[in-house]
Each structure stands twice: as C-alpha cells, then as structure tokens.
Write the structure tokens for this entry.
Amino acid sequence: MSRSAHPAGPRHADVMSEGHYTAPADDLNALDEKVWSSTVTRDEHGALTVGGIEVSRLAEEFGTPAYFLDEADFRARCRAWSDAFGPGADVFYAGKAFLSRAVVRWLKEEGLNLDVCSGGELTTALDAGMPAERIAFHGNNKTVEEIERAVEAGVGRIVLDSFQEIVRVAHIARRLGRRQPVQIRVTVGVEAHTHEFIATAHEDQKFGIALAGGQAAEAVRRALTLDGLELIGIHSHIGSQIFDMAGFEVSARRVVQLLAEVRDEHGVELPEIDLGGGLGIAYTSEDDPREPHEIAKSLGDIVTRECEAAGLATPRISVEPGRAIVGPTAFTLYEVGTIKPLEGLRTYVSVDGGMSDNIRTALYDAEYSVTLASRTSDAEPMLVRVVGKHCESGDIVVKDAFLPSDLAPGDLIAVPATGAYCRSMASNYNHALRPPVVAVRDGAARVIVRRETEEDLLRLDVG
C-alpha cells in the first residue's frame, strides 16, 4: 500500500472534539529541545540525525530496535552537574539508570562519582576503572558476598539500610581489618509527588530507617559505637521523576534536625548529608525540568539555612542524579510494522520492539513522545498508540501521541528520553533479544552494549 493510500486513523478535528487529548504540535516534524539530546536535528531531507549521522544509516548498520546514546550530550550533562555543585559537593551518578563500562569511563573522565546498588554494578564499575573511593554502594538487602566485595575494594561509602545491615557491615569490616565509611539512609516521611512505585521516603516502604519513633537516632547510636564503622553522614532519597523542590526542603529540614540531635547527644557533627537524586526530566513537551544550577542553588540554600538555624556547620552535600543525566541523552529507534486504524478511536502503530525494551509505560504508566524519524511529512496528524510485538495488551510504548496520517510500514519512528531505565530494565520476554546501545559522537557510531543473539539465549538454556 502506498503512503498516500494508507487508511489513517482519527484525525485532529475528530479527536479534539472529544476533549480527551492534548492537541498535536503545529508542526509534527519539530523537535522540542527539552525532550531531545543536544545534537539531534533534522537534515536537509527531513531525516532525524544524531551526532551528525542520519537515522536510516544507523538503522542499516545496527538494526532496530536500538538505543542511540548521544555521547557529547551525556558528557555535557555530567559537566553541568559538576559545575553547578562545585568542588564543595559530590555528584554521584546513579548507575541503576544505565550502566556500562563505557559510561563508567566517561564518568571517571568527567570527574563524577558513581552510585551502585548491586554486585553486578559494582563489578562493572571496578572493571572499567572507577576508583573504589569514588563509589557509593546502595541497596536494601546487600548480600554478605556483595558487602565483602565492597569492603575489600575500599568503596568510599556503604549506605546502611537496616539495623541488621549495620551489624553485618561492621562484622565484615572488622573481620577484614577495615574501618568502612558508612552513611545511614533515613526515611523522612515525605510524600513525593510522583508514582507510588518510585516514591521512596514515605514510611510504608522497604527503604531506609524511619525518623519516626526514634529509629534513625537509634541507628546512629549503633553505628557510632560499633568497631569497623566510620559514620560519615545521613542519606535521604524521596523518590524519582520529581519537579517540585518542596519535598527536598522538607527532607533537608528533617535530616538537619537529626544532625542536631546527634550533635546534642553524642558531641559529634557528621560531616556529610546526601539528598539523593530523583530530579525529573522532560519526557513530553508538557514537562518542565529544572536546570542543574537551579537545583544546586536551591538545595544549597535549604541546607545552609537549616544548619544556621540549628547552629551547625554546613555539611558537605552529595546528590545522585541518574535519570537527569542519561535520560535525555538517548532515544530508541523502531521500525513500523503493522498499522491498525480503529474508527473513531485511534490508530495502533506496532513496532519491532515493545515492553521488552521499555517496560516503564506498562509499569509506571509513563508518558513518552514519538516522532517520525526517517522523513518529514505534511500529512494531517492522527492520534496513535505505539505498541510492541509482545503477547500482552499492556505492551504499550507510547499511550497517546500524534503522528502523520501517511505513516506506513517500514517508516522509522523515534522515542526520545529513553536513556534511563529502559535498557537497565529490559527483558527477554517472549524470548525477545535485548537491543544494543550505540554511542554516537562527531559523526562516528560504536556499539557499547551489543545486541543479544539467539545464541546468547541458548547458551544460558542448559536443560
């Protein structure tokens, strides 16, 4: 079927009369700089490019689906966070967002530290040359083997998440003849304005030790008295994809109150405070993220003000951006397969990936943008739902968006802001092969995480 003859789904006028959807952009070919990485543009033929390379060339060489990561943009975001907080603070990249050996090397070269939360992430960090003293180790249930590896490597901090873990880390550190720097993660009772599954500072959840009832104060007492531990500070993390700084203000105030209690009871002023990460990014044009320098000033002012009120020296601040660095630096490129118009509703656009390469829409009800990438079009917009090829009705990549009504099988479409959590949470559901991650910079592209093969699947299947 030719593109001009393709039966399109509901048009702009039809869907807007229902009043349920945001109007499409005046120009569906336009690229919102909030959503796309800095080197993404369209060439003179209308095709999407990144790092100076047109997407059809990338698709021909690396296939689809694939994640394309803008290395120059990633490095620039690292520098922006480092510059915003300056030498008096520490920026830890949250490796859970996306981690590979190439990314570890970029972080090391750009001067950022690294936060890991599993033995596999720790192994990747050390193998790629990140100095152990620049690594923080998180997790609510670290195994004995993971703790031993971290202590032996000399990680700069282990974030203690429970009373059992306080004893466990102290015991391992004593046995290994080490004095391990630690922080205590506290839950401060803040309800972050985010999805339930990524809010982490309310009391009814698995992370941290509650301030309520004096539990955090008791954790401090134990950490200060056990041999093998050096308590360097308090850690708090209130959630993810947060735009409102009010939650951080409440969190900082409560953490500083705990620091004052520690000083009054033990005569010790802890030197560090980690306010976590969780700052939001733009997935759609309606999102309005804050810049690193705004975040740094806001957090610095909050902590300084609260410490002055409590008569405390201002501690060294740490933050842990992950999504805010890597999220906007990548997009996922798909090839359109089946197009199925549903009269009066929307058009379903099926692509060659789906929930195996982006589970966030199904898991968090996340919203994404999408654009026709292999060409431009002046055709009338149609309301679409971009779906995957998996045997699940919830296999949705983009719930509701507008694409040109002449969209056809074989077209390439791109979903921006997929650098965070998409590859990290990718799966082999339906025995799908996880896509590659391709770094693009200055006209050159290279695979940093290769595409899985059927041989990879069979190699693990030893039955």
